[in-house]
Specification:
The structure holds two protein chains of two kinds. Chain A contains 23 helices and 22 strands. Helix content of chain A is 51%, strand content 15%. The longest helix of chain A is centred in the first third of the chain and has 41 residues. Chain A is elongated and about 120 Å long. In chain A, strand 16 and strand 17 form a beta hairpin. In chain A, 53% of the residues are buried. Chain B folds into three domains: 32 residues; 212 residues, no CATH class; 184 residues, no CATH class. Classes of the chains: A alpha+beta, B mainly alpha.
């Protein structure tokens, strides 16, 4: 299985943008100066208005021309930088989507009438496909639309969607039967049932999401936006009232410097980067191959308290493998092997295949016995097997299934269940394996041990979650013994055994009633209610359409441990907002010390004592503060897009670290930076 | 410095048991003394026609608070305007002008006690004992009631409908307003006032219903043949003014007058009284909410800020460049000296008390800066109830920022702070600079309005101090303003109202909104507010928030004043 390990390094995109993307972003920075966009962000709107005001003051000759145009230019650049930050974030997301779009324009589909199509396929444009259509796709062709494989298996290159070039295996009848439109089949031929109307596939949604227009602000973003607006209004009041206060002591203030002061004080750093942080959150989730249906879902993921996981396919590989035969006393082990193999020859499940694999003699070809009638597994009988009609030999009726089902079957035939069986069954279960009992007629032959192998590295991931404060609960249909053994091996915190599908929903409701935010990972149709009820429902892309519709995120790799990455993205996004807000406000302290002395320099000479940075001249002080204010935005774009690093340590340790870096650092850094810029200005232009 | 330490130790020693007693009183469960106090309380409830056990939603609670204030305010206003015709007026105080009476009524109603009049000359005994002392006793308990209701809301309301953490549909029960006011008034405020009255009377503070004697000045050069010494029931009023973070004195110069503050011991007693209940409330919080560490957070944070601000005031008054001036004793009582005056100035502005034992106008400019900063923060101990209420506002803001930085959407005690709560917080955050800077700018733009005694930077401090004191419901005056004008009376009346009611009601509304949300159990990933790390973050948020908004005016006022005076 070549799905990407969840801990793989972020793929591609080492540079922020390529040349074309950069050009697009720069153009977009100017387009975003238009009022309909500029006024969506109140903080930057104030800067934009300040720019116009500064230009007006300069033209009207109310301030010195040189300084006037310099300030105007710096303010304009500040707005452009903020626009650029947003444009870069959008362009990065769109970069992935755009190539897809190109690929989709002329996709064609070979529609076929049935799974085992006999009539030649009709070639139609992909846009004409409807849900339920069947299409055949051969090696080298592109998948025309989202769908599920109904026949065959293939290796597929999903790099167009996931950015991951290693091919993945998709197979009918397994957890990984989903295929995505626009990806390329590398080998074999498959028949796919289309599950999404054109224009409504995940890719279409993804394209919509990364394009700013359809992006909705998340609840926390709205709340923080309100706080930033409040701070902006506060400083507006401060600056508007200042000339009256100064006028009382006979000081006339240069209106240009007041505009400069205002722009320096309002939280432009976080205000300019806030949209970019939100878009980048979605992009980072996407880079982890998780498609979030909304930014809110990513944000909520950061708050998760409990994670509910289905055992199968999540904690274990899911395809249980036969690992041993345990013949009962007095039974020839070879007889057990043979019976188990015969009962499994026509069994299409991975378990069945693995029994054949383990039982067969590798040197001999398998011969299907003649006159065999295969009995498929049903939920009622909970057995499968084969009836062999006599060909000189006596007729045989071989069954394999759960121990209680076989016991009933044998007793019904008048046989007797050996007392030894219960001990054998329990022995196997205690190891965390699933016991499968094999009977030939009314004789119980023994037990096949099916081991469900716990995924490599899963324990470490759960430990990681625990460190973040997330409790993991495993849900399984297994008996309590098996469940407990697997739970211990995987290191989950809690386990629900012998669970029916409705138990998942009940457990989620119970956790939510205790106030916890619950994430659920699932793939099956019977998971859909639970996925919908959970605060975060992560559906596997290879899973059923119902599950995908019910969840609010889809993992394109179908790797359930991926939730961990989404949680980190959610947390990083919040930390980045908090850290940059703190940084932005802390910056104001030094900016005051740069601009206030400059503002009062002419009228109140004693104010020179406040010029603690010893800046070379009032004009240089103002320019230095504005340059810092503008340039910090592009300097922090990488941080905004990448996110502040999250370490799963206690909340207090995180707070301490971020306060030191962004709070204390936010106060100290601009003192140094403004002084350096001033030295540079003084060296180049003089005081 | 010794005095500061003695005051602090006494206050903590007395505040600890008092805080626990307060918690029991506010919890309302059966307790010792029910029979005795019931004798007073039951008739009061009957008179008011209320059932003290009935629960109220936050809206009903707020309505009861506003209604009781409206009625008391109008009564006091009428008494001040008609006192000349009413009994108990031995000194012959005339009726107050309507605007001065309005300002005085609102000032005492809002637990501010800003005085644009001189009590000894302009109020009758009846007015002092009803309109002044009556409000001084009951209004601090209203503040306490509101913060207790807010605390109930923050923890999900009284007797939550079930143990489940699911969101509640309707508004939760935040307590009974009448019980929350009457119980602490009868069981805490009145006994303490009685105790302090006795102690102060013992120290020589007048306690009589007579008008006072006429004395012949010893120093004939004063040019006065005789001087009327106005007396009255001063001790009970001084007790109430200090215990209840009121600050309005019997005499114009407040506790600088020997008749209000005769001895070093009375000075100590009064300073302890100023801090007693505000400090006790920090201990009450833990016992009331059954979270002892919450008390540690509130007490620790406030103590830290108090120590820094107190030390700065004392240092500035004794050692700063402007303190060495010979004029440093102008406006101060020689009996107390610079150190004790600075300590009192710091304490009275930290607690929103507003009584003074020196004229703040005469403090060194940087000491003046400290007093203004204390009132701008208004949550270093703070007024009874209002201080903690303001602290909760800072807590919500601090949690919002700090919560983000721990990677979770912000929550306080397990309840999420979202756009609705931030919107309400924004109103409070915006109101302060809008009102303070707006009114200061308007007043300074029209110099005829100011009535300043000083020109220049000092005048900016005077005007800004007056508005800040009104908005913070502190009540102390920088003095030096001719503030009994219609402009000052009406503008400060508006600020008194804006500084009191939104500050008490908006946090209650926020708490009620939080109470309806589902509670997330605290885990290792959730922000722990009761830690030194968060406490320091909170202090940083408080200081930076205040500093950033008011830096320019503080630079133009006290700091420029300081720079001008210290210039060679």
């Amino acid at each position: 299985m070549s799905t990407t390990p969840a801990h793989a390094a972020p793929r591609g995109h080492h540079a922020l943008l390529d040349a074309a993307g950069l050009r697009t972003a720069i153009i977009a920075s100017f387009v975003k100066l238009l009022p309909q966009h500029a006024f969506r962000n109140p903080v930057m709107a104030v800067v934009w208005l300040g720019t116009l005001l500064a230009a007006g003051l300069t033209i009207a000759g109310l301030t010195s021309r040189g300084l006037g145009w310099t300030v105007t230019a710096l303010l304009l650049v500040t707005v452009l930088f903020a626009n650029f930050a947003e444009a870069v974030a959008e362009a990065r997301g769109r970069g992935q989507a755009a190539s897809l779009r190109r690929a989709r324009k002329d996709l064609v589909a070979r529609r076929v009438p049935s799974e085992g199509y006999t009539i030649a396929a009709t070639t139609i444009p992909a846009a004409d496909l409807r849900v339920g259509d069947l299409v055949a796709i051969s090696a080298g062709e592109l998948v025309p639309a989202d769908g599920e494989i109904v026949k065959g298996l293939a290796t597929i290159n999903e790099s167009a969607v996931t950015g991951e070039s290693a091919p993945v295996l998709r197979e009918a009848g397994t957890d990984r039967s989903g295929v995505i439109g626009g990806t390329k089949v590398l080998s074999d031929e498959i028949v796919v049932r289309i599950t999404a109307e054109p224009g409504h596939s995940f890719l279409d949604r993804m394209i919509g999401l990364v394009e700013g227009a359809s992006r909705q602000r998340t609840p926390n973003e709205i709340a923080l936006g309100l706080l930033l607006l409040t701070m902006t209004l506060t400083f507006l009041i401060v600056v508007i009232t200042l000339p009256f206060l100064a006028g009382f002591v006979g000081a006339t203030l240069d209106p240009l410097l007041l505009v400069a002061l205002l722009v320096c004080l309002i939280p432009t750093t976080i205000g300019g980067l806030l949209p970019a942080i939100g878009i980048a959150g979605m992009n980072r989730a996407l880079a982890a191959n998780v498609l979030a249906k909304s930014g809110k879902a990513v944000e909520v993921a950061g708050d998760i308290d409990v994670l509910l996981l289905d055992k199968t396919g999540t904690i274990t590989h899911g395809d249980r493998q036969a690992t041993a035969f345990h013949a009962l006393a007095g039974v020839d082990p070879a007889a057990l092997r043979e019976a188990a193999m015969l009962a499994s020859l026509a069994d299409p499940t991975p378990e069945g295949k693995s029994i054949v694999q383990l039982a067969r003699d590798p040197s001999r070809a398998i011969e299907e016995p003649p006159h065999a009638r295969f009995v498929a597994f049903t939920a009622q009988t909970r057995m499968s097997g084969v009836d062999l009609a006599g060909d000189g030999t006596r007729p045989r009726c071989i069954r394999k299934g759960a121990s209680d089902a076989i016991a009933r079957h044998v007793e019904a035939l008048g046989g007797e269940v050996p007392t030894e069986l219960a001990a054998r069954v329990e022995q196997v279960a205690r190891r965390g394996a699933t016991p499968l009992v094999v009977a030939d007629g009314r004789h119980v032959l023994g037990v096949v041990e099916l081991s469900d192998v716990v995924k490599h590295g899963i324990k470490a991931k759960f430990a990681h979650m625990r460190a973040m404060g997330i409790r993991t609960v495993m849900i399984t249909g297994d008996n309590p013994l098996t469940a407990a053994a697997i739970a211990a091996e995987a290191g989950v915190d809690d386990v629900v055994a012998e669970a029916r599908p409705e138990d998942k929903l009940a457990r989620i409701r119970e956790e939510q009633a205790r106030g916890r935010l619950v994430a659920m990972v699932g793939d099956g149709t019977n998971d859909a209610p639970a996925l919908a009820q959970a605060d975060v429902g992560l559906a596997m892309n290879a899973g059923t359409q119902a599950a995908k519709e019910a969840g609010n995120m889809v993992d394109l790799d179908s790797d359930p441990a991926k939730l961990l990455e989404v949680v980190e993205v959610g947390k990083q996004q919040l930390i980045t907002r908090g850290a940059l807000t703190t940084f932005s406000l802390a910056n104001d302290v030094s900016k005051y010390f740069a601009i206030l002395p400059a503002l009062f320099a002419g009228a109140i000479p004693s104010m020179a004592a406040l010029n603690v940075m010893q800046l070379s001249s009032p004009a240089n002080a103002v320019v230095a503060a504005l340059v810092f204010n503008a340039i910090i935005i592009p300097l922090l774009i990488p941080l905004a897009l990448r996110g502040v690093r999250f370490r799963p340590s206690g909340a207090t340790a995180l707070l301490r670290r971020n306060m030191l870096v962004y709070g204390v650092g936010g106060i100290a850094l601009p003192f140094v930076a403004i002084k350096l810029i001033d030295l540079l200005l003084a060296a180049v232009f003089g005081a | 410095m010794t005095e500061a330490i003695v005051v602090l130790l006494l206050v903590i020693a007395a505040g600890w048991p008092l805080g626990h007693y307060l918690a029991a009183v506010m919890r309302g469960a059966p307790m010792h003394g029910d029979r005795v106090f019931g004798v007073i309380e039951k008739p009061v409830y009957r008179l008011l026609g209320v059932d003290p056990s009935e629960g109220m939603t936050w809206k009903a609670y707020a309505a009861a608070f506003l209604a009781s204030n409206a009625i008391l305010g109008v009564l006091a206003w009428v008494v001040f305007m008609t006192q000349a015709w009413l009994p108990l007026n031995p000194n012959g105080a005339p009726n107050m002008r309507w605007d001065l009476a309005l300002h005085t009524a609102v000032s005492f109603l809002t637990n501010t006690n800003q005085q644009h009049y001189s009590g000894q000359a302009q109020l009758s005994h009846l007015a002092q004992m009803t309109g002044i002392v009556g409000l001084q006793v009951v209004t601090p308990m209203m503040g306490l009631a509101l913060v207790v209701a807010t605390l109930r809301g923050l923890f999900g309301g009284r007797t939550p409908p079930s143990a489940s953490a699911q969101a509640t549909v309707g508004d939760v029960d935040v307590g009974n307003y009448w019980a929350d006011v009457v119980r602490p008034s009868v069981r805490v405020m009145l006994p303490l006032c009685l105790l302090w009255s006795v102690l102060l009377t013992w120290q020589g503070v007048p306690s009589t219903l007579d008008g006072g004697p006429v004395a012949t000045p010893v120093d004939a050069s004063a040019g006065m043949a005789a001087q009327k010494i106005p007396l009255g029931p001063v001790a009970p009023m001084v007790a109430a003014k200090q215990i209840g973070t009121n600050g309005g004195g019997w005499y114009g110069p407040n506790s600088a007058v020997p008749l209000e503050n005769p001895t070093p011991l009375s000075n100590l007693l009064e300073m302890v009284a100023i801090l007693l209940i505000p400090v006790a409330i920090t201990f009450m919080v833990g016992a009331f909410t059954e979270r002892r560490r919450f008390s540690a957070l509130v007490f620790g944070t406030m103590l830290l800020m108090s120590l820094v601000s107190g030390s700065a005031a004392i240092w500035s008054e004794g050692h700063s460049a402007t303190a060495s001036d010979i004029a440093v004793m102008e406006g101060k009582e020689t009996r107390f000296g610079a150190g004790s005056s600075a300590l009192w100035a710091a304490v009275t502005t930290q607690t929103s008390n507003g009584s003074v034992n020196a004229m703040h106008d005469s403090l060194a400019p940087l000491t003046g800066l400290v007093t203004i900063a204390n009132m701008l923060v208004n949550g270093i101990w703070g007024g009874i109830g209002c201080g903690l209420q303001q602290f909760i506002v800072y807590l919500l803001l601090g949690v919002f920022l700090a919560g983000l930085m721990t990677g979770r959407t912000p929550e306080l005690f397990g309840r999420k702070i979202e756009a609705h709560e931030v919107k309400l917080l924004a109103v409070l955050v915006l109101l302060q600079p809008l009102v303070l800077l707006g009114f200061t700018a308007v007043t300074l733009a029209v110099p005829e309005l100011t009535g300043n005694s000083n020109p220049g930077f000092h005048a900016i401090s005077q005007v800004f101090y007056e508005f800040t004191s009104a908005f913070a419901n502190n009540g102390s005056g920088f003095e030096g303003l001719g503030d009994a004008t219609a402009w000052w009376n009406l503008s400060t009346t508006l600020l008194l109202v804006l500084g009191r009611y939104p500050a008490l009601l908006i946090p209650l509304a926020i708490a009620a909104s939080l109470a309806r949300k589902r509670v997330t159990p605290e885990g290792i990933g959730t922000l722990q507010v009761e830690t030194p790390t968060f406490a320091l973050t909170l202090v940083a948020v408080i200081v930076i928030l205040t500093l950033l908004q008011f830096m320019p005016i503080l630079v133009l006022g006290p700091i420029a004043d300081h720079l001008a005076l210290s210039a060679p």
